[in-house]
Design goal:
Elements: E1 2-7, H1 12-23, E2 27-32, H2 37-51, E3 55-59, H3 67-78, E4 81-87, H4 103-131, E5 134-139, H5 153-172, E6 178-183, E7 188-189, H6 192-195, E8 209-210, H7 211-224, E9 228-229, H8 233-244, H9 248-258
Parallel strand pairs: 1-2, 1-4, 2-3, 4-5, 5-6, 6-9, 7-8
Helix pairs in contact: 1-2, 1-7, 3-4, 4-5
Length: 262
């Protein structure tokens, strides 16, 4: 039986994507860090009971070098074939200038957002092509389109990589029966902002989308084989305005103000 692998599945967009796959009768492998084991276990029990599918929960640190290959080995040991790969796990460091950022924290962020996403894609794409079917959904951010992005240099750059990588992968996969979709959400009601260092984000509530809506947009785009999806009117406007602004400094200043910690 083929299944969907969803990283960062314990909360937020990843959790909602797991629910969408399960509702369509697709077995799922759901992955999160060990600190989210309670949430992941609860999700696995929910999906198995509600939809009668196989659910394999895995907890591991995907920000470690070699984590992608280790995860694939663990899934192979379960005898599960992955037809759908969702690279959703990611972290951010927001509200800090690059000179005030912790190099170790940024390195772990890049390892997770960029390297593990790349490794999992490179490991599973050839298998999917050989099988003649499959889909990859890489969850990025609208920050990928905002250049320069103030006060989140490492995060925005990591998501610009995810966007570029996804579009290149989609091009390479043409005619193989396998697709790659890039989902670029704007601010979303998840735990992301808090773990990224922003704390109270109530001042930004009017800009936020809910995780279920974002997940549905990404899932539908993946099913349709689309290359890019930017859900939400406000997010689309942000993408366009960043591209046409006559002042790059203005783009950096305004985007930095949005994620400021003050």
């Amino acid at each position: 039986m083929s299944a969907a692998l969803i990283t960062g599945a314990s909360t937020g967009i990843g959790r909602e994507l797991a629910r969408l796959f399960a509702a369509d009768g697709v077995d799922v492998v759901v992955v999160s860090s060990k600190r989210s084991i309670a949430e992941l276990t609860s999700l696995a029990e929910e999906l198995g009971a509600r939809h009668g599918i196989r659910v394999d929960p895995i907890t591991m640190d995907l920000a470690q070098p070699g984590a992608g290959a280790d995860l694939v080995a663990r899934i192979d040991a379960l005898g599960v074939e992955i037809e759908y790969l969702v690279n959703n796990a990611g972290v951010g460091i927001l509200g800090l200038t690059v000179q005030d950022s912790d190099p170790d924290a940024v390195s772990r962020m890049v390892q997770l957002n960029v390297v593990t996403t790349t490794d999992l894609t490179l490991l599973y794409a050839p298998r999917m092509v050989k099988a003649g079917r499959g889909a990859i959904l890489n969850v990025g951010s609208v920050a990928a389109y905002v250049i320069p992005h103030g006060l989140e240099a490492g995060y925005a750059a990591s998501k610009a990589y995810v966007r570029s990588f996804s579009e290149c992968v989609a091009h390479d996969l043409r005619g193989t029966g396998v697709t790659c979709t890039h989902l670029a959400p704007g601010p979303t009601r998840t735990e992301f902002m808090g773990t990224a260092g922003l704390g109270d984000t109530s001042r930004l509530d009017r800009y936020f989308s809910d995780a279920e809506t974002v997940a549905k947009a990404g899932y539908a785009a993946m099913r349709a084989g689309r290359v890019n999806v930017v859900p939400g009117v406000g997010t689309k406007i942000m993408r366009v305005m960043s591209a046409v602004s006559p002042s790059r400094r203005l783009v950096g200043d305004l985007s930095g103000r949005f994620v400021s910690r003050h």
